Amino acid sequence: MRKNSIKNTRINGEVQRVLAEVIRGEIKDPRISQWASVVAVEVAPDLKSCKAWISVLGGQEEREATLEGLRSAEGFIRRQLAQRINLRNTPQITFVMDQSIEYGVNMSHRIDEVVGGQGDAQTP
Q1: Which residues contact 110 (CB under 8 A, 6 or more apart)?
Q2: Confidence of residue 1 (pLDDT cuts 50, 70, 90)
Q3: 43 SS3 class
Q4: For residue 86, which of 45, 47, 66, 76 sits 20 to 30 Å off, Cα-Cα?
Q5: What does DSSP say about strands 92-97 and 49-56: parallel, antiparallel, or unpaired?
Q6: For residue 96, which of 29, 31, 47, 41 has the smallest C-alpha distance?
Q7: Ramachandran sector of residue 93 (left: φ over 0; alpha: ψ -120 to 50; beta: rest)
Q8: Contact predicate 32/66, CB 8 Å
Q9: DSSP alpha helix (H) spans, 1-124
Q10: What is this structure's pTM?
Q11: Count of beta carbons in the 10 Å neighbourhood of residue 62
């Protein structure tokens, strides 16, 4: 796999910033959670496609509704991206649910349980 060039890294950061602004402030869809955030963005080197990892604080139903709302607003989001960033091509956006934050919190709780359980077992 090819490493990202400096130019591609800058484009990823700028697309992530604009996506976060548009999702947070301009989309009026009630399905999209106010606790949705853009975790990472990966734009293809040819600028034709883009993957955006979205994290939502809440339950499974809220995550699915947010993903559905973002997919339905994809045209609007692309138009905003085209207006704000001067790119040769405006990438086709694919939204992916990122569960790494939830996974990290879950693992942290499990570690705390194990450490807490061992401390109780060692006391006479």
Answers
A1: none
A2: very low
A3: strand
A4: 66
A5: parallel
A6: 41
A7: beta
A8: yes
A9: 6-25, 60-72, 74-84, 100-122
A10: 0.77
A11: 16
Tokens coding 61: 């139903």
* Tokens linked to 57: 């604080």
Confirm if 70 and 23 have CB atoms less than 8 A apart: yes
- CATH fold of 6-122 reads GMP Synthetase; Chain A, domain 3 (3.30.300)
Please list, in sequence order, all residues whose beta carbon lies within 8 angstroms of the beta carbon of residue 74, skipping any fewer than 6 positions away. 93, 95
Average pLDDT of every residue of the chain: 87
What pLDDT, in 10s, does the model give residues 86-118? 888 899 999 999 877 777 878 888 999 998 876
Q: Listing from the earlier edge strand, what are the strands of the sheet with 92-97?
A: 36-43, 49-56, 92-97
